[in-house]
Amino acid sequence: MTAAHADVPELALTSAQSREAAAAWASVGASRSSDYPAFQLEYKVTQRQLNISVQKKESNWWKRLTKQERRPMFLAPDFDRWLDESDAEMELKAKEEEERINKIRIESRVPKDSFRQLKRGYLFMYNLVQFLGFSWIFVNMTVRLFILGKDSFYDTFHTIADMMYFCQTLAFIEILNSLAGIVRSPFIPSFLQVLGRNFVLFIVLGNVEEMQSKAVVFFVFYCWSITELFRYPFYMLSCIDIEWKLLTWIRYTIWIPLYPLGTLAEAVCLIQAIPFFSETGKFSFTLPYPMSITIKFSFFLQIYVIMLFLGLFINLRHLYKQRRQHLGSKKRKMK
Asked: In this predicted model, what pLDDT tens digit does every residue of 2-17 receive, in sequence order?
């Protein structure tokens, strides 16, 4: 606000007088009680007027600036900066309308995907089918474990294999989705996971009957099913723009124990299968003359066990980046 005297052509105030005038106005605030919350007072003396700036420490509306209801004649408000409650509401609405228009303009610049809803529906159904399949595997294995105990370990393959074949064959679609750009998942982690699991399932377990009755099969299948029990529902709900914070946290946390345990179980399975492939010579082949070198499949399995942990490192690094992206920012905001 501006304080001036109408009858005096010049207002010549010393610094002491200016402080006294400002203090006199501030003394009004001493009796303001709850009507006038805390404020900060600044003043500036010119040749014709005394400018007093009142900076509120809390954003709210005051009934008036002076103790008396009527404004003194020597006080003149700066109407260029005048703002009442109705003006503030109109200004806020105008700002919101401007933001809405800018958002529409930005969205209009982005090319529309005419197949977006079709893609979402396709991904939703795919994740739903996979979720139901792995749920059946998990529930079946859990119930048999409670009923039969350790005996359920040795016939897991014969009980679960058909459904696991179906789910893991269907998982090849994830590689195609990544290649086609339908999903934003990077190609290499998806390729390594799907190919690695199917190698163990179809090549090792599916071709060696002696391995099908091993207890390690239970742990391989169980680790796979628990992981997918949370991964596929997360992606399924993402297709319809629904996010459950608990599910998000589990999806990006449960891999920390399960992926190393699953890889360890796969490695044990491969190591146990090496003697059977070495004895039978299955999948071994001899290079043509003049090399005539026999390459045993058991030797390839030994190399693959080492590569298995390299693939684990790539997947863990990818999942760690995803976890920081989805959970790390929230933690920083809370701090």
From this structure: 444 444 444 444 555 5
What CA–CA distance (Å, rounded) separates 121 from 129?
A: 12
Task: Between 315 and 19, name the one with better pLDDT.
Answer: 315
How far is 329 from 325, CA to CA, in rounded Å?
Answer: 7
Does residue 190 contact residue 174 with C-beta atoms inside 8 Å?
yes
Cα separation, 85 vs 76, in Å, equals 20
Q: Is the model's pTM score more than 0.85? A: no
Q: How far apart are CA 284 and CA 301, in angstroms?
A: 11
Can you read off the two tokens belonging to residue 142? Answer: 């859990």
Q: Which of 36, 126, 174, 266 is catalytic?
A: 266
Per the document, the length of the chain is: 335
d(CA 158, CA 218): 11
Contacts with 236 (C-beta within 8 Å, 6 or more apart), sequence order: 124, 127, 128, 131
Q: Nearest-CA neighbor of 199 among 307, 287, 97?
A: 307
Active site residue 259: yes
Element (H, E) at 23: helix 15-30
What is the signed CA dihedral for 168, 173, 175, 176, rounded to 10 degrees?
A: 160
DSSP 8-state code for residue 280: H
The Cα–Cα gap between 19 and 25 comes to 10
Cβ(133)–Cβ(232) under 8 Å?
no
Alpha-carbon distance of 134 to 233, in angstroms, equals 11
User: CA-CA distance, 98 to 290, in Å (whole number)?
Assistant: 79
What is the pLDDT, as a whole number, of residue 31?
Answer: 46
Catalytic residue, chosen from 259, 279, 304, 320, is 259
Indicate the residue type of 238: S
- Report the candidate in 231, 109, 245, 216 with the shortest Cα–Cα distance to residue 157: 216
Contact 133, 167 (CB under 8 A): yes
Whether 222 is a known active-site residue: answer: no
Q: Using CA atoms, how far apart are residues 166 and 286, in angstroms rounded to an integer?
A: 33
